[in-house]
Amino acid sequence: MRDDLKLVTAAIRLRAGFPCRWSVVSADGRGWFPQGTSPARDLDGLPYFHGDDLLVHVPRERLTIRVTRGMEYGSAETTLTPGSGETLVELAPRRIYDAAARGWYGADLHVRFNRPTQWMADSQHGEDLHVVNLLPGDGEAVETWTGRDLPWSDETHVARVGLAHQALGPVSDALTKLRERGSLIGYANAYRGPVETPEQLVGAGDPGFDARLSVVDAALGLVDSFSSAIGSAQAYRRLIGAGNRIAAVAGTSQRLGPIGRERTYAHVRGPLTAESYAEAVRRGRTFATTGPFLELAVDGEVPGATLDQVAGNRVSVVGRVIGPGVETVRLLTADGELASGPPGEVAAELTVNWPTYVVAVAEGGGQVRAHTSPVYLDVERRRVAREEDVTFCLRWLELLEDLIRDRVSADYLSVVEEARRVYQARLT
Questions:
Q1: How far apart are CA 266 and CA 109, in angstroms?
Q2: I need a labelling partner for 268 at 20 to 30 A (CA). Which of 44, 108, 115, 130 fits?
Q3: Topology of domain 290-379, CATH
Q4: Rounded distance, CA 83 to CA 59, Å?
Q5: Distance CA 111, CA 259 (A)
Q6: Average pLDDT over residues 293-307
Q7: Distance CA 127, CA 260 (A)
């Protein structure tokens, strides 16, 4: 008989009133789970499982019970020693903000479909994750579920296979066909180190998720998003400053811990569906976050909007943030910082003398980060193409070409050359 089964002499029933993420831990760090649940631990080593009204068999000793529900909620905790029979534990986390009530829906666009279906369903609802894009582990899942919501979807939770796809280069017929069918194309988990120079960008790219190629795809309009907008904010701002219009997104690498640790919030107009969410991302109505709820308004318009200006016009810019851990909110244009301040609301006026963009960024200790997509400010229909950023991208292209020249076909290199012509034209 297993040692942990010998210890079980009591039971607790966990009830929050809605699906949550639970941890039940004894003093020695041992985790306790409902029968049939696959053991899992988060990034801090804390055991967890999802659901509501759950029965857990436990030892009759002091236990710590913790409950939370993704980034829109706080956490609640209690300790107890269960008696004989069944002990009811009613505990619920406090909501920090309600994004859906404002028309914003959070997604994890990078979840591998490598766990049992029930685990995926419980995880999505237990984390209150509005949209999940599942990366299929085999062709059968694609064939069965492409274009259809998975069975546990409801009005505020949508799960799809293949809603978003990883770009692996600028000459992929398969990705072109997926995009024509409405799938989002972007990059995930791109960089593992500092990426503030072209040399760092080309040297730090992860070959498995190679966003080094995004400088090509973005120029040619082949991708919708750049999912290192949190961890690689400098690279993202170089791309949009050079005239590329791509959305800021994020996704969790599901190596450890629960899904939804990084989310892409998109402002959906009308009911939430996979199609309405994808359209919102495609139009850049997004922000990427590890927790904070970050809003940006430029003359009342949200990220993704383009405002055509006459040189000398003034616009009002407001950034707002909700959530723990934020220390600074910054309003940035293509030329640098417009304003910054402590958590809450930061406002400024901007005189538009040449094409630019505005983004909001929230920063804090540890991994607290959020970054919006831009509001674009064109001037007499000319879009931003800042010389310094275009030159940066041309250098990025040059280094990329040197890296891949001996590994790819002439057709591939011709696509790189086409991207170079796009950037060179923007210099004039």
A1: 12
A2: 115
A3: Immunoglobulin-like (2.60.40)
A4: 10
A5: 7
A6: 98
A7: 7
